Amino acid sequence: PSEDMITLMWSFVVSIYSIGGLLGSLSAGYLSVRFGRKKAMLFANIPALLSATLMGLSRLCGYFEMIIAGRLFSGMCGGLCAPLHHQYVGEISPRKLRGFANSTSSFFWSLGKAIGQISGQRELLGSQTLWPMLMASCGLPALVQLVTLPFFPESPPYLLMHKGDQDSCRTAIRQLWGEGQHQADIDDIMKEKATMKNTKILSVLELMKEPAFRWQLYMIVILTATVQLCGINAV
Protein backbone atom coordinates (compact mmCIF):
# COMPACT_ATOMS: atom_id res chain seq x y z
CA PRO A 1 0.00 0.00 0.00
CA SER A 2 1.03 3.59 -0.61
CA GLU A 3 2.25 5.89 2.12
CA ASP A 4 -0.95 7.93 1.90
CA MET A 5 -3.06 4.79 2.37
CA ILE A 6 -1.01 3.76 5.41
CA THR A 7 -1.46 7.23 6.91
CA LEU A 8 -5.21 7.05 6.25
CA MET A 9 -5.52 3.64 7.90
CA TRP A 10 -3.61 4.67 11.00
CA SER A 11 -5.69 7.83 11.24
CA PHE A 12 -8.77 5.63 11.12
CA VAL A 13 -7.31 3.38 13.83
CA VAL A 14 -6.85 6.40 16.10
CA SER A 15 -10.18 8.11 15.38
CA ILE A 16 -12.42 5.03 15.64
CA TYR A 17 -11.84 5.11 19.41
CA SER A 18 -14.07 8.20 19.54
CA ILE A 19 -16.83 6.39 17.65
CA GLY A 20 -16.71 3.60 20.20
CA GLY A 21 -16.75 6.18 22.98
CA LEU A 22 -19.91 7.72 21.51
CA LEU A 23 -21.64 4.34 21.38
CA GLY A 24 -20.58 3.52 24.93
CA SER A 25 -21.62 6.85 26.43
CA LEU A 26 -25.05 6.70 24.77
CA SER A 27 -25.75 3.30 26.36
CA ALA A 28 -24.29 4.09 29.80
CA GLY A 29 -27.44 5.74 31.11
CA TYR A 30 -29.72 2.87 30.11
CA LEU A 31 -27.40 0.20 31.53
CA SER A 32 -26.92 2.01 34.84
CA VAL A 33 -30.69 2.27 35.39
CA ARG A 34 -31.63 -1.13 33.98
CA PHE A 35 -28.96 -3.24 35.69
CA GLY A 36 -27.49 -0.96 38.36
CA ARG A 37 -24.20 0.92 38.59
CA LYS A 38 -22.16 -2.06 39.73
CA LYS A 39 -23.39 -4.50 37.08
CA ALA A 40 -23.02 -1.85 34.38
CA MET A 41 -19.38 -1.34 35.35
CA LEU A 42 -18.83 -5.09 35.29
CA PHE A 43 -20.38 -5.19 31.83
CA ALA A 44 -17.95 -2.49 30.69
CA ASN A 45 -15.11 -4.94 31.24
CA ILE A 46 -16.34 -7.12 28.36
CA PRO A 47 -15.43 -4.69 25.54
CA ALA A 48 -12.15 -3.91 27.32
CA LEU A 49 -11.12 -7.56 27.43
CA LEU A 50 -12.28 -8.07 23.83
CA SER A 51 -10.19 -5.09 22.82
CA ALA A 52 -7.10 -6.39 24.59
CA THR A 53 -7.51 -9.83 23.02
CA LEU A 54 -7.99 -8.53 19.48
CA MET A 55 -5.13 -6.04 19.57
CA GLY A 56 -2.80 -8.41 21.40
CA LEU A 57 -3.28 -11.13 18.78
CA SER A 58 -3.35 -8.84 15.74
CA ARG A 59 0.35 -9.26 14.89
CA LEU A 60 0.24 -13.02 15.40
CA CYS A 61 -2.82 -13.37 13.14
CA GLY A 62 -1.57 -10.81 10.63
CA TYR A 63 -4.80 -8.79 10.40
CA PHE A 64 -4.67 -5.04 10.97
CA GLU A 65 -8.49 -5.07 11.03
CA MET A 66 -8.22 -6.62 14.49
CA ILE A 67 -6.54 -3.43 15.71
CA ILE A 68 -9.40 -1.35 14.31
CA ALA A 69 -12.00 -3.57 15.99
CA GLY A 70 -9.99 -3.53 19.22
CA ARG A 71 -9.84 0.26 19.23
CA LEU A 72 -13.61 0.39 18.68
CA PHE A 73 -14.25 -1.88 21.68
CA SER A 74 -11.73 0.07 23.74
CA GLY A 75 -13.61 3.27 22.97
CA MET A 76 -16.88 1.63 23.98
CA CYS A 77 -15.34 0.71 27.32
CA GLY A 78 -14.10 4.27 27.83
CA GLY A 79 -17.49 5.71 26.90
CA LEU A 80 -19.20 3.42 29.39
CA CYS A 81 -16.76 3.87 32.25
CA ALA A 82 -16.44 7.66 32.11
CA PRO A 83 -20.01 8.41 33.33
CA LEU A 84 -20.42 5.20 35.33
CA HIS A 85 -17.29 5.87 37.40
CA HIS A 86 -18.49 9.34 38.40
CA GLN A 87 -21.93 8.01 39.20
CA TYR A 88 -20.88 4.98 41.23
CA VAL A 89 -18.01 6.60 43.13
CA GLY A 90 -20.10 9.67 43.92
CA GLU A 91 -23.02 7.62 45.21
CA ILE A 92 -21.00 5.28 47.43
CA SER A 93 -18.92 8.09 48.97
CA PRO A 94 -19.85 9.91 52.19
CA ARG A 95 -21.13 13.41 51.57
CA LYS A 96 -18.01 15.12 52.95
CA LEU A 97 -15.74 13.10 50.61
CA ARG A 98 -17.97 13.10 47.53
CA GLY A 99 -16.25 15.97 45.76
CA PHE A 100 -12.80 14.52 46.35
CA ALA A 101 -13.90 11.05 45.25
CA ASN A 102 -15.34 12.35 41.98
CA SER A 103 -12.12 14.22 41.23
CA THR A 104 -10.12 10.97 41.29
CA SER A 105 -11.31 10.08 37.79
CA SER A 106 -9.42 13.00 36.23
CA PHE A 107 -6.28 12.04 38.13
CA PHE A 108 -6.38 8.41 37.03
CA TRP A 109 -7.25 9.31 33.43
CA SER A 110 -4.11 11.45 33.33
CA LEU A 111 -2.07 8.81 35.14
CA GLY A 112 -3.16 6.16 32.65
CA LYS A 113 -2.17 8.35 29.71
CA ALA A 114 1.21 9.05 31.28
CA ILE A 115 1.85 5.35 31.89
CA GLY A 116 0.81 4.57 28.32
CA GLN A 117 3.13 7.21 26.87
CA ILE A 118 6.07 6.02 28.98
CA SER A 119 5.43 2.35 28.26
CA GLY A 120 5.23 3.11 24.54
CA GLN A 121 8.86 4.14 24.34
CA ARG A 122 10.99 1.91 22.12
CA GLU A 123 13.20 1.01 25.05
CA LEU A 124 10.19 -0.49 26.86
CA LEU A 125 7.14 -1.90 25.03
CA GLY A 126 7.23 0.21 21.87
CA SER A 127 9.53 -2.10 19.92
CA GLN A 128 8.50 -4.09 16.85
CA THR A 129 8.20 -7.29 18.86
CA LEU A 130 6.55 -6.00 22.04
CA TRP A 131 3.95 -3.51 20.74
CA PRO A 132 1.14 -6.14 20.78
CA MET A 133 1.78 -6.56 24.50
CA LEU A 134 1.53 -2.79 24.92
CA MET A 135 -1.82 -2.66 23.13
CA ALA A 136 -3.12 -5.65 25.10
CA SER A 137 -2.19 -4.00 28.41
CA CYS A 138 -5.51 -2.13 28.36
CA GLY A 139 -7.07 -5.37 29.56
CA LEU A 140 -5.18 -5.33 32.87
CA PRO A 141 -7.31 -2.65 34.61
CA ALA A 142 -10.45 -4.38 33.33
CA LEU A 143 -9.25 -7.69 34.71
CA VAL A 144 -8.50 -6.12 38.10
CA GLN A 145 -11.94 -4.50 38.21
CA LEU A 146 -13.61 -7.74 37.12
CA VAL A 147 -12.00 -9.57 40.05
CA THR A 148 -12.39 -6.92 42.77
CA LEU A 149 -15.67 -5.12 41.99
CA PRO A 150 -17.95 -8.08 42.91
CA PHE A 151 -16.81 -7.63 46.52
CA PHE A 152 -18.22 -4.08 46.59
CA PRO A 153 -21.91 -3.39 47.26
CA GLU A 154 -24.35 -1.82 44.84
CA SER A 155 -24.90 1.92 45.02
CA PRO A 156 -27.17 2.72 48.03
CA PRO A 157 -29.12 5.45 46.17
CA TYR A 158 -29.79 3.03 43.32
CA LEU A 159 -31.06 0.35 45.70
CA LEU A 160 -33.41 2.77 47.41
CA MET A 161 -34.52 5.02 44.54
CA HIS A 162 -34.83 2.49 41.73
CA LYS A 163 -35.36 -0.79 43.57
CA GLY A 164 -37.19 0.51 46.63
CA ASP A 165 -35.16 -1.84 48.84
CA GLN A 166 -34.45 0.08 52.04
CA ASP A 167 -32.93 -2.91 53.87
CA SER A 168 -30.38 -3.55 51.11
CA CYS A 169 -29.64 0.16 51.00
CA ARG A 170 -28.97 0.23 54.73
CA THR A 171 -26.76 -2.88 54.47
CA ALA A 172 -24.76 -1.33 51.62
CA ILE A 173 -24.26 1.90 53.57
CA ARG A 174 -22.97 0.01 56.60
CA GLN A 175 -20.62 -2.04 54.43
CA LEU A 176 -19.25 1.12 52.83
CA TRP A 177 -19.21 3.57 55.72
CA GLY A 178 -19.11 1.28 58.75
CA GLU A 179 -21.51 0.87 61.63
CA GLY A 180 -23.27 3.94 62.90
CA GLN A 181 -26.34 6.07 62.54
CA HIS A 182 -26.96 6.62 58.85
CA GLN A 183 -30.64 7.49 58.97
CA ALA A 184 -29.92 11.07 57.92
CA ASP A 185 -28.27 9.84 54.72
CA ILE A 186 -31.21 7.54 54.00
CA ASP A 187 -33.61 10.44 54.58
CA ASP A 188 -31.65 12.53 52.07
CA ILE A 189 -31.97 9.77 49.48
CA MET A 190 -35.70 9.54 50.17
CA LYS A 191 -36.05 13.30 49.66
CA GLU A 192 -34.17 13.02 46.37
CA LYS A 193 -36.45 10.16 45.34
CA ALA A 194 -39.52 12.27 46.09
CA THR A 195 -38.07 15.12 44.04
CA MET A 196 -37.30 12.81 41.12
CA LYS A 197 -40.93 11.67 40.98
CA ASN A 198 -41.94 15.17 39.96
CA THR A 199 -39.06 15.55 37.50
CA LYS A 200 -39.35 14.41 33.91
CA ILE A 201 -36.33 12.48 32.67
CA LEU A 202 -35.37 13.83 29.26
CA SER A 203 -33.92 11.86 26.40
CA VAL A 204 -30.92 13.18 24.48
CA LEU A 205 -33.17 14.55 21.73
CA GLU A 206 -35.55 16.16 24.23
CA LEU A 207 -32.60 17.70 26.07
CA MET A 208 -31.35 19.26 22.85
CA LYS A 209 -34.80 20.75 22.19
CA GLU A 210 -35.31 22.08 25.73
CA PRO A 211 -34.76 25.88 25.76
CA ALA A 212 -33.92 25.96 29.49
CA PHE A 213 -30.80 23.84 28.94
CA ARG A 214 -29.78 25.18 25.54
CA TRP A 215 -26.97 27.50 26.64
CA GLN A 216 -25.56 24.96 29.10
CA LEU A 217 -25.56 22.38 26.32
CA TYR A 218 -23.83 24.81 23.95
CA MET A 219 -21.09 25.44 26.52
CA ILE A 220 -20.48 21.73 27.09
CA VAL A 221 -20.33 20.99 23.36
CA ILE A 222 -17.97 23.91 22.67
CA LEU A 223 -15.64 23.04 25.54
CA THR A 224 -15.52 19.36 24.59
CA ALA A 225 -14.99 20.14 20.91
CA THR A 226 -12.22 22.59 21.79
CA VAL A 227 -10.41 19.92 23.81
CA GLN A 228 -10.65 17.47 20.91
CA LEU A 229 -9.57 20.03 18.30
CA CYS A 230 -6.64 21.44 20.28
CA GLY A 231 -4.41 18.59 19.13
CA ILE A 232 -4.27 16.56 22.33
CA ASN A 233 -5.10 13.32 20.49
CA ALA A 234 -2.46 14.02 17.86
CA VAL A 235 0.13 14.63 20.57
Automatic annotation (TrEMBL):
Keywords: Membrane, Transmembrane, Transmembrane helix. InterPro entries: GLUT (IPR045263), MFS_dom (IPR020846), MFS_sugar_transport-like (IPR005828), MFS_trans_sf (IPR036259), Sugar_transporter_CS (IPR005829). It comes from the Eukaryota. One of its GO terms (biological process) is D-glucose import. The keyword NADP does not apply. Gene3D superfamilies: MFS general substrate transporter like domains. GO terms for cellular component: plasma membrane. It holds the Pfam family Sugar_tr. Residues 1-235 form the Major facilitator superfamily (MFS) profile domain. It is found in: Membrane. The chain crosses the membrane at residues 12-33, 40-57. PROSITE patterns: MFS, SUGAR_TRANSPORT_2. GO terms for molecular function: D-glucose transmembrane transporter activity. Its main location: membrane. It is a multi-pass membrane protein. The keyword Phosphoprotein does not apply. This is GTR5 protein. The lineage of its organism: Eukaryota, Metazoa, Chordata, Craniata, Vertebrata.
